[in-house]
């Protein structure tokens, strides 16, 4: 019976080679048995290798686009910006790792080889108690993986790509075709331009008047936006305010608007129209002998003024009859006469209110009383600024419809007292009601009040009124209660013709910073030395004459009168006629006095 030799059988050859390798491996193990120190000297290398592999593994699990990292590196492997693949996404987004798979394998293999080589050198045989390193590495691994899993749960992503998912076509179409998608898109991303057929620019300039003559006002927006028509206000409402109730008075409070709307919806039948508006008259049953004057005529104005005084006298006699137009429970507690303070009116006939856009001084716990004695000094404009304003004003006078009236924007220097005590003393000297205002002890030792310059200001917004509209928007009220006024109390009112808002000077400061200087700019003082004194007798006389005859008197008439007196010995210019109180001959016939004619032009 024949038998096959082990060498001739393929299975026997493999077995023989395996046995040979096992014997050699066992021989090396037997030879390394006595060398205990060398066999255990590589554990510090193994610990460092474990820490390095753990860091590589974390980078392998983390996404390239990390939402929790403020310093995001947007450079992806494929050159695009990636996002996290979540289960709720309807669009497939591949997971892009911070450390790609090939780099992870290459770095790990290289680290294992280097660690194996380092284990054969005595230099890395550091005497460390290895169980502590093992326990520390296990704790570090558990805590790090716990944090990574929390990060994955928080941002809802998986660190592995499971294949391309199908699109939820029905859901995507529904999202973009819902009626609210366009409204939401308009609210979240508002347009910064007004889109029209020509994108805001008329392409055909032939029909635009004055374009080829250098006048571009017809293709530019007006400097002052015209007020919209009340019928167009509903069309100008924003998308966010659609469906919400609007009120005409937005400055009133919420409760005030509710109360006003309720009273308008349910008027009180006990309050008659006569009680609400005392000027409302019933239509006369019979035609009067004297016809009612036309509205706006002097006779109509006179009758309305007289009627207002009659109503005021009746209300003062019995304050219980005064009814509030909307609030029934409100009663009159006290009343003040409201009169104009004509002696305090400036030469222009009205005042100017100035509002700071930001506080001029640093805010603190106490009010800075220096602001009560501040001085505004206008800054003279340069030649170029005067020329630009004159050009704009000339264009407005030539074509007011196309060119709005330019604003006379002014710049100012603000001067404040050095300290609060100086400001208080200055106000005492400037107070006409203070009997000790001329006391020299109020002045500092130098004999003047020092006002250092704080900073320059420029006008940011300005609104001008005329003499017909100066009472329409804002007036200044001054309550006074003392024995010097008739009745012991009075309220003076002062008109406002100009309202300005000023801010820190920016335009010229920016020009100086970039090296643009104005050669025409005059030097400005750093400090004002102010003294307060009474006006001279000549000035008092001129002011008294101007008060008595505001229309026919001027301050230059006294100089002309003195020249005439020197030339003719004080005689009248024409030799006849009584002299007027100011020393001039009247060239106008004497007009009828107010006692002879009334506003209607009829004799009393």
Map the helices and strands.
Blueprint: H1 10-32, H2 36-39, H3 43-61, H4 101-118, H5 130-155, H6 169-177, H7 179-188, H8 254-265, H9 273-276, H10 298-317, E1 338-340, E2 351-356, E3 375-379, H11 383-398, E4 411-415, H12 420-430, E5 449-464, E6 475-481, E7 489-504, H13 507-513, E8 527-530, H14 537-548, H15 557-568
Parallel strand pairs: 1-7, 2-7
Antiparallel strand pairs: 3-4, 4-5, 5-7, 5-8, 6-7
Helix pairs in contact: 3-4, 3-5
What features would you describe in this structure?
- There is one protein chain.
- This protein is α+β, with helices and mostly antiparallel strands.
- Among the domains are: 35-155, no CATH class; 294-335, no CATH class; 338-361 and 368-531, no CATH class; 536-562.
- It has helices at 10-32, 36-39, 43-61, 101-118, 130-155, 169-177, 179-188, 254-265, 273-276, 298-317, 383-398, 420-430, 507-513, 537-548, 557-568, and strands at residues 338-340, 351-356, 375-379, 411-415, 449-464, 475-481, 489-504, 527-530.
- Strands 1, 2, 3, 4, 5, 6, 7 and 8 form an 8-stranded mixed beta sheet that branches.
- 4% of the residues are buried.
Span between termini: 169 Å
Biggest β-sheet, characterized?
Answer: 8 strands, mixed
- List how many beta strands DSSP finds: 8
Q: Find the structural class using helix and strand composition.
A: alpha+beta
Keywords: Membrane, Transmembrane, Transmembrane helix
Membrane topology: Multi-pass membrane protein
Transmembrane segments: 40-61, 128-146
Protein name: Protein RER1
């Amino acid at each position: 019976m024949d038998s096959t030799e082990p060498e001739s059988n393929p299975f026997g050859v493999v077995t023989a080679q395996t046995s040979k390798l096992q014997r050699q491996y066992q021989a090396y193990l037997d030879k390394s048995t006595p060398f205990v120190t060398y066999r255990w000297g590589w554990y510090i290398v193994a610990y460092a290798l474990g820490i390095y592999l753990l860091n590589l593994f974390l980078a392998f699990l983390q996404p390239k686009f990390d939402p929790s990292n403020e310093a995001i590196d947007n450079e992806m492997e494929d050159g695009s910006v990636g996002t996290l693949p979540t289960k709720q996404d309807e669009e497939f987004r591949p997971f892009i790792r911070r450390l790609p798979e090939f780099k992870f394998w290459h770095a790990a293999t290289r680290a294992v080889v280097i660690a194996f080589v380092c284990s054969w050198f005595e230099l890395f045989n550091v005497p460390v108690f290895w169980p502590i390193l093992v326990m520390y590495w296990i704790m570090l691994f558990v805590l790090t993986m716990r944090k990574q899993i929390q990060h994955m749960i928080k941002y809802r992503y998986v660190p592995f790509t499971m294949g391309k998912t199908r699109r939820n076509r029905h859901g995507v179409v529904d999202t973009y075709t819902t009626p609210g998608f366009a409204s939401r898109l308009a609210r979240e991303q508002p347009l910064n331009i007004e889109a029209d057929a020509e994108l805001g620019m008329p392409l055909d300039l032939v029909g635009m008047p004055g374009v080829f003559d250098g006048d571009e006002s017809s293709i530019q927006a007006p400097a002052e936006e015209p007020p919209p028509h009340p019928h167009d206000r509903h069309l100008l409402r924003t998308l966010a305010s659609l469906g919400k109730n609007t009120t005409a008075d937005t400055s009133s409070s919420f409760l005030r608007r509710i109360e006003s709307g309720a009273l308008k919806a349910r008027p009180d039948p006990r309050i008659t129209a006569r009680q609400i508006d005392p000027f409302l008259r019933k239509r006369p049953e019979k035609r009067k002998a004297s016809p009612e004057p036309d509205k706006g005529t002097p006779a109509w104005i006179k009758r309305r003024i007289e009627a207002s005084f009659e109503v005021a006298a009746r209300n003062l006699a019995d304050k219980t009859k005064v009814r509030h137009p909307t609030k029934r429970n409100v009663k009159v507690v006290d009343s003040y006469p409201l009169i104009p303070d004509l002696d305090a009116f400036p030469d222009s006939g009205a005042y100017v209110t100035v509002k700071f856009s930001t506080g001029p001084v640093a805010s603190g716990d106490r009010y800075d009383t220096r602001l009560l004695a501040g001085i505004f000094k206008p800054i003279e404009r340069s030649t170029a600024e005067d020329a630009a304003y004159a050009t704009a004003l000339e264009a407005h006078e030539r074509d007011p419809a196309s060119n709005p009236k330019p604003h006379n924007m002014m710049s100012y220097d603000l001067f404040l007292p050095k300290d609060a005590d100086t400001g208080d003393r200055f106000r005492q000297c400037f107070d006409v009601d203070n009997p000790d205002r001329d006391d020299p002890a109020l002045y500092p030792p130098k004999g003047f009040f020092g006002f250092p310059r704080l900073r320059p200001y420029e006008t940011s917004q300005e609104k001008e009124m005329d003499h017909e509209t100066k009472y329409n928007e804002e007036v200044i009220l001054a309550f006074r209660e003392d024995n010097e006024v008739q009745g012991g109390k009075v309220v003076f009112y002062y008109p406002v013709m100009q309202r300005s808002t000023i801010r820190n000077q920016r335009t010229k400061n920016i020009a100086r910073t970039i090296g643009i200087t104005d050669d025409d700019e005059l030097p400005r003082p750093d400090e004002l030395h102010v003294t307060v004194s009474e006006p001279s007798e000549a000035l008092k006389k001129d002011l008294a004459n101007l008060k008595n005859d505001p229309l026919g008197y001027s301050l230059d008439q006294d100089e002309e009168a003195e020249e005439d007196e020197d030339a003719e010995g004080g005689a009248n210019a024409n030799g006849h006629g009584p002299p007027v109180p100011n020393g001039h001959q009247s060239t106008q016939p004497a007009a009828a006095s107010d006692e002879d004619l009334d506003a209607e032009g009829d004799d009393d």
